Write the C-alpha cells for this entry.
Amino acid sequence: MHRIGPANRIAELRATHGLSQARVAELIGKDRSVVTRYERGEVQIPDSVKLELAVLFGVTRAYLMNWDGDGTTDATDATDATNDGGGVGEGEVAA
C-alpha cells in the first residue's frame, strides 16, 4: 500500500514521546484503530487532526506532514499560531 507522507513521522514522534497508539488516540479523541491507519498511511488525515497532532507533539504541521522544516515552531508559521511547541509527554494530558 502507498504510504501517505506523514505516516512514518507520526509513528516516530509517538515513539519519541513514549506514547502508545491508544494514548495518542485518547488525547485526540479518536479510536486507536484510526491512529493505526494514520500511521500506516491508509487514510488521509483531516486538517483538524493534523493540528491536534502537531500541538500534541510540539511540532509544526509542516514537519508533521513531512512538508518542510525541522519541526520547531516559528512566529512566521501562521498556520500553527496556536502551537506553542510544548507538546505532551507520557503522563500529561492535553488541554
Summary: The radius of gyration is 12 Å.
